[in-house]
Queue: 2 jobs
Job 1
Amino acid sequence: MMENKQKLTSETLRDFPLFSELTIDQLRQISLISKVQNFKKNEMLFSEGDDYKGFFILLKGSVKVYKISSEGKESILHLIKPLDAFGDVPLFEGGNYPVFAQAISDSILIFYPKNEFKQLLMCNSTICFNMLTGFAKRMRRLTQKVEDLTTKEVSSRFSRYLLEEITKAGTDKLPEPFVKLNISKKNIASYIGTITETLSRLLKKLQDDGIIRIVGKTVFVSNLPKLKSIAN
């Protein structure tokens, strides 16, 4: 891992949902303790049980947050995308990192050290409130994922995932919405609770049914109403 000593500006920090409501002065205080770090593809950010040092916000690239069962099976809890924060739960509840985090492409992240950030929180209730808001939104997403994994078919879970990615990509209003999937089938399959072979069969069926078409790593949705119907 290479570290970049550059500090983030207040204007850049305001782009992050976690800090979007903070004042310029508050953002300036946060920028003074931030550190820009670079991770290569497949490099570990932290492992389950590691001493907690602080949390991250992804600036560029992609990161997976996952657990490994006693049988050695990997289950992806979150696929982190730019502007998402992660590794922040122990900041409040204490303890070590409860999960693994690994870069799945070359990534640039902002690191916030535990002690310095906790000191800021103790002096600023607005920062605390904004972080609680972020936690609430993440909890809703996690609750939805648990519900999907227990009540929905693989086709429904993947369709919902595809629709979410298309919305994030900002192409959902186009005649043929699309998204470029820059992560492996293995990681997507783990995230939606299935195996790579099942996902491959599903992709072929969705193509054969004229619902999607795939060009390289880009998935185009040819029949959006049908995809939404499967997702529901």
Job 2
Amino acid sequence: MVAKSGGPDEPQIQWYPGHMAQAMRKLAERLRVVDAIIEVRDARLPDASANPALDQLAARKPRVVVLGCEDLADPHLTREWLAWLAAHGRTAVAVNGKDQTSVRRIAAALNNVAAGGAMRAMVVGIPNTGKSSIINGLVRRTAARAEDKAGVTRSLQWFRVGPKLELMDTPGILVPKIATPQARWQLALTGALPRERFDAEAVIAEFVAWSRAHAPERAVPDLAAFAELRGFAQRGGGFDVHNAAGAFLKGFGEGKFGRFTFERPAGSA
């Protein structure tokens, strides 16, 4: 399914491949065999990376909202989001999946919402929010495959964390309808989509325009300036914009341009 353009300049983004549709259909079935949910969102997009279907499908199950990739997000806005989620009745923690200390917050929060008994918990979220890194941190070994790309986890996997906790890892799921064109390019930029499903140059152009309006002090270069700076020269003159775009996206994912959060909680200044 390809997103319909809201205007002539909106990046064309294909965000709902078949394996995600199948995963969404199986979500309700899998929820029946777990006691609690660990919903992993992207701290840079706490709203757009949420799955609203969980509010209906799992309304009665204990849930911990994990804002993953917190090391790439604006720390002030992450604190705002944690306070907002708590005010709306959600148990929430922010973590860097590569940091054991922060990952332990999840187990503590899960014990609190599930009364500390033996349980099976499902880990669910959009692609590339750090679900596999979080599982590896909880299991304390490399059990789940983790890569900085969307769609790595394709099948159902169980991992034992301890005598009282088992985790079910599930494929990353994107909702079938993304609310706004802005959320589409932001989800593409933050790695929720494989690169072949969107126009990288158009997504980068949207990000550069956004950064100049909202964070001009970061001085994020446009793609042409980045290509020149990094020496992506082509034989015969000009620059290799295609490979420069790949390096730009990689640099963003590594925090080379700074820490960004694209959304604020409703009602915040």
